[in-house]
């Protein structure tokens, strides 16, 4: 059984994002980059399925600049068997990524695609759903539990009213939620082994995909600075400020 795991290179979640001088995007020139946390969960789930003897091969795929090879090596250090880089300097939007992944799915014919439900940089939460539509595969989003057996995937997902359980035939697309698992740390021996694992490079042109952006970002700005709090002497003063300044009562 072959599993495809898309992984994305994003600004590390511990880094405070800054807007660039031109006000057109987040400044990543000197920011620490890492694998998207939801993608780490997807990799972990695939590795656990392999450890259980269900999965035989895990393929990590990433699209973006050359430095995405670092993200792929991280995925391979966590347990992926090989990597595929779709190299491009174009700004990739969810539909373009979904089309690139659909092309990889066509070439690799995986039995399962597991990807993070969203990336922490744009929070789009679209790629998994678009990929399922483009490949005509069943999908289960926001998975908190995955069971693979008898050629089917049984997925438990969190909804507003509680938990929903879906059963799907394979191949299928699953997007991961935070509570699916807790990703492991890569050990030094596995990091060294990852450097020798195969990593293929291709381009959107080679896959026959047009990744020209369809949306244009007009302006990016920092949120307004929050005013400092004050200490009031009594409840009467607090109520007065709430009525006249906060306008909540």
From TrEMBL:
Family recorded in the similarity comment: Belongs to the ETF beta-subunit/FixA family.
Top-rank taxon: Bacteria
InterPro entries: ET-Flavoprotein_bsu_CS, ETF_a/b_N, ETF_b, ETF_beta_N, Rossmann-like_a/b/a_fold
Subunit structure: Heterodimer of an alpha and a beta subunit.
Domain Electron transfer flavoprotein alpha/beta-subunit N-terminal: 23-211
Gene Ontology terms: biological process: carboxylic acid catabolic process
Gene Ontology MF terms in the entry: electron transfer activity
SUPFAM superfamilies linked to this entry: Adenine nucleotide alpha hydrolases-like
Cofactor(s) this protein cannot do without: AMP
Stored Pfam families: ETF
Protein name in the entry: Electron transfer flavoprotein subunit beta
SMART domains in the record: ETF
Function of the protein: The electron transfer flavoprotein serves as a specific electron acceptor for other dehydrogenases. It transfers the electrons to the main respiratory chain via ETF-ubiquinone oxidoreductase (ETF dehydrogenase).
Organism of origin: Formosimonas limnophila
Keyword list, A-Z: Electron transport, Transport
